[in-house]
Design a protein that fits this description.
The structure holds two protein chains of two kinds. By secondary structure, chain A is mainly α. Chain A has one domain. In chain A, helix 1 packs across helix 3, helix 1 crosses helix 10 and helix 5 runs parallel beside helix 12. Chain B is an all-alpha fold. Chain B has two domains: about 130 residues, Up-down Bundle (Four Helix Bundle (Hemerythrin (Met), subunit A)); about 50 residues. Chain B contains eight helices and no strands. The chains are: A mainly alpha, B mainly alpha. Chains A and B meet through helix 4 and helix 5 of A and helix 3 and helix 4 of B.
């Protein structure tokens, strides 16, 4: 195939995934949360069980006026949603869903570092929004976002480093090529640490202090309306896809499954990602919100020691079997 | 060496070289705005542009690993800490009239001297070495790791001890401040009127 066409096609596929998957997760969240709480959720939009609810929401957001507060820092305020959203689009490029060469947007030599580095940039969007809104609630949300970073960044990196040590490579497809089923119990502590830290990065319940709607309205996004607000929401759901996809690739064996990886590998990846996304929604309905200092305590007294223990275990097993 | 220089003239640059130069100019411009702007948070955001531009330069030099680490540490963590610190201060929207330093000329002299030394060392070390873009990547994770842990282990370990010392120092300093505060309040417990002022001073 022509090189340019190949690149264009890959970009297009990743872009379509980026636009549709978050909507699917959002709709699932509506329905799953509703049924867990004894409600029906959206039922009318589109006819069949309200499948078109989020499309209707999107149309509504697009029609709304895009307001920039008079006291706000105009350009930073307008730029913030893009800074929050684009990193997740870039990360999706690097996540492999199948074993073949064509099943990943772009093979990167230092894949783990790429995804963690670029995901970290997304936080800047929340900080920019929080500061530029000229609103006390927004500023508090931004502060909480930054404080949260101190808690989740280190355990997340350490857990990812453990897998990289086990595989002897930092390339995401390389890790999956080295995967064996017994990595699952071996790396399970790292997997849990990574997933919990990732939830804190996405500001999902029980770690949604930066947007806590009952305390600080909607945190850094309080002043946003219309399409820009929708972009922040899209960033959150794209973040769920990225986090679940990464946990799947790093810890759950990605395309590996009981009936062989050939041909149906991509289905395994999608299935595991969907399962994890369900867990993310489930946690939202189950747990109350933590306080910011409780997250710090959880992270520094539990997650960091656990991830260090995981690295030690990985090192010992690695030395013994080699 | 002379053969390589003969093959790559300075007057007929390749696309990559032009891109390198343009990104370099953009990075330099962003760095200049960072130190000259009067808006504190804008300075931090321009710093993001400068550091990101640096990461792109690393990528163009085929040092992929270093580029991502640059983004991870500097853009993702250091700048976020910087913004966190700024948010704790007043950091108004718009210009801060006092966002200037009387040391600007001394700072300029130090910056020019440091830049001069770095440029001199780098130019002297590499002269007319060219990166072969068609061969195996010279800055891949494997190559970087092997050179770091075979040739440069001692500096690497010395640096990590230095960082550990800084970490311990930070903990000691923060604990000492807290102990002083507790001591101050207990010492002035019989004069409660002076207490708030005492506390302010201890901080």
């Amino acid at each position: 195939m022509n090189d340019a066409l190949d690149v264009a096609l890959r970009l297009l596929v990743v872009f379509v995934v980026f636009l549709t998957f978050p909507l699917i997760v959002g709709q699932t969240e509506h329905k799953v949360m509703a049924h867990m709480q004894g409600r029906l959720g959206p039922m009318y939009a589109g006819g069949f069980h309200g499948w078109a609810q989020l499309i209707a929401d999107g149309v509504k957001f697009a029609q709304k006026e895009d307001v920039v507060p008079a006291g706000a820092d105009r350009r930073v305020f307008q730029l913030a949603p893009a800074v929050a959203l684009l990193p997740y689009l870039l990360v999706l490029l690097a996540i492999p869903i199948g074993p073949s060469e064509g099943a990943v947007g772009q093979v990167l030599d230092a894949g783990i570092f790429f995804v963690l580095a670029v995901m970290g940039v997304g936080v800047l969007g929340s900080l920019m929004a929080g500061w530029a809104s000229a609103n006390k609630f927004s500023l508090l949300g931004g502060l909480r976002t930054a404080a949260q970073l101190l808690a989740y960044e280190l355990p997340m990196l350490l857990a990812a480093a453990s897998v990289a040590m086990a595989a002897g490579t930092v390339s995401l497809p390389g890790i999956l090529h080295a995967f064996h089923w017994w990595w699952l119990p071996w790396q399970i502590v790292g997997a849990i640490v990574f997933f919990v830290a990732g939830l804190a990065e996405l500001q999902r319940p029980p770690f949604d202090m930066p947007v806590a709607d009952s305390e600080i309205i909607f945190g850094a996004y309080t002043e946003y309306t219309g399409l820009r607000f929708a972009l922040f929401l899209l960033a959150e759901y794209a973040g769920i896809i990225v986090l679940c996809g990464l946990t799947t690739v790093l810890f759950l064996g990605g395309w590996h499954g009981p009936w062989g990886a050939d041909g149906l590998g991509w289905l395994w990846t999608l299935l595991k990602t969907a399962l994890l996304a369900f867990v993310v929604i489930w946690l939202r309905v189950t747990y109350p919100r933590l306080r910011e200092d409780q997250l710090q305590k959880l992270s520094w007294t539990l997650l960091v020691p656990l991830s260090l223990a995981q690295i030690a275990l990985t090192g010992i097993v690695k030395v013994v079997i080699s | 060496m002379s053969l390589a220089a003969a093959q790559h003239g300075f007057l007929s640059p390749a696309g990559v070289e032009i891109a390198f130069l343009l990104v370099g100019l953009a990075t330099f411009g962003a760095a200049l705005v960072t130190v000259t702007t009067r808006q504190l948070v804008h300075a931090a955001l321009w710093l993001v542009v400068a550091l990101g531009g640096l990461a792109v330069e690393y990528l163009l030099l085929t040092a992929e690993f270093i580029a991502w680490v640059q983004v991870l540490i500097y853009v993702g963590s250091v700048v976020v800490l910087l913004l966190f610190g700024l948010m704790l201060t007043k950091a108004p929207i718009g210009r801060s009239p006092d966002a200037d330093s009387g040391n600007r000329w001394a700072a300029l002299a130090v910056a020019v001297a440091a830049a001069g030394a770095l440029v001199w060392v780098v130019v002297d070390a590499f002269r007319t070495t060219w990166i072969d873009l068609k061969g195996p990547a010279a800055g891949s994770t494997r190559v970087t790791g092997e050179s770091l842990f075979q040739n440069w282990v001692l500096p690497f370990e010395a640096l990590s001890v230095l960082l550990l010392a800084a970490l311990v120092g930070a903990i000691v300093l923060s604990r000492k401040a807290k102990a002083d505060e507790a001591f101050g309040t207990s010492a002035t417990a019989d004069t409660p009127v002076a207490l708030p002022g005492e506390k302010e001073g201890a901080r």
